[in-house]
Amino acid sequence: RRQLVEMRKQEATRLQQTADAEARADIRSLIAVFDRRIAKVEARMAEIIAADPELAEIARRLRTVPGVGPIVAATLIAELPELGHLDRRRIAALAGLAPIARDSGQRTGRRTIGGGRPIVRTMLYIAALHASRRCADFQAFRSRLESTGKPAKAAITATARKLLGVLNAMLAAGADYRHPAPA
Fold it and tell me: Which of 82, 64, 63 is nearest to 73 (CA)?
């Protein structure tokens, strides 16, 4: 699925850069082929998850969190099977969302993220972006970080780490996400 989505994105970029009407028609037909293939792959992913009751329950539970849809849930199930079995620091490091210190002697460097599983990190970043737009809890967390001077991307990355912690705790406890009560 990832490869098909990437190829579709490349063709969409070519479409924007092409002026020739015949070439544009060819590119549009190729994008339609990619759309159909992506839909088939996504349907197959859903079938595989639905066929296993344990995976189906994990996917259902993950999807109770804002920002986590069927693709994010399937990616987490496939790419991060340790979810729910490790503590929050270890799972964040495994996903590549743990801050890495760049200190030397008296110098305190900037913290950055890296390593881990880039596919998981990307999916959690996208999920955190959606969650921070639609869920009051994640929205308040991101706003608080941005109001203290954090750049937007750093705030979204921190929100992704928080989202991962929530997902990990939910699966460890066998509980669904509880939306915060309105104030």
Answer: 63
What CA–CA distance (Å, rounded) separates 114 from 95?
Answer: 9
Nearest to 165 by CA among 137, 136, 145, 133: 137
Contact, 74 vs 43, CB < 8 A?
Answer: no
Q: What is the DSSP letter of 179?
A: P
E-strand stretches of the chain: none
DSSP state of 111: P
**Residues in the chain where the model's pLDDT stays below 70:** 102-103, 107, 109, 111, 180-183
* CA–CA dist 10, 176 (Å, integer): 38
Find, among 95, 102, 160, 97, the residue nearest to 127 by Cα.
160
CB 37 within 8 A of CB 4: yes
